[in-house]
Amino acid sequence: MSRFWIQLAGLRIEVNALCQTTERFFADYLIDACVADFSVLVEECDIDQEKKIVQSQYHRERKTPPRCSIEELEETVVHRKIAQHLPFYHAFVFHGSAVAVKNRCFIFAAVSGTGKTTHTDLWLKNIPGSFVVNGDKPILRMESDGVYVYGTPWMGKEGMGCNQKVPLHAVCFLSRGKENIIVPCSFSDIVPRFLGQIYRPHHRETILQ
Predict the structure, then answer these.
(1) Cα(71)–Cα(51) distance, rounded to whole angstroms?
(2) What is the pTM for the complete model shown?
(3) What is the pLDDT of residues 32-60, one digit of tens each?
(4) Measured at the alpha carbon of residue 3, what is the angle toward residues 153 and 81, in degrees to the nearest 5?
């Protein structure tokens, strides 16, 4: 068992993990022991359940499930448990690539394989001073002066991101097309798209937050 503390989205979190190596995954977010805003505990049954989730997802896509190590499964378990607490602190995990320029963050969201990483790379190559806050699973938190985007250690297979906090400026939903265009979305169009990219806990009381 490994016990350590991290800070994500301005929240202090106590983590009780099974694997000693899990602490290294959170190296950029570690803080000294303190009174935590909330705690997460990983148990053997959580690892077994996560393995079943992975297998189910790949079977639905008719793909061979990968052989995930206990450490990899535990990193995802911790992610799920933290995500379940976040709505109580006006925050949530958002699936998208968050790029910052001049203290403004732009999030590009789309289903996997649409081109988030390609679009992000174009910004990095062509816009001086741009950087990636998180390439896959940033946290959005509503604060008294606006909405902020926070980096997390879950950065996707490219591993792009950093431990930074940047004000959210816009969210762009990508789709494939024959020409490059950008148009504003109506409220009725944006809500289902937005909700589709949020990690939504299964507990009713958490969703209602």
Answers:
(1) 12
(2) 0.87
(3) 999 999 999 999 999 999 999 888 888 87
(4) 50
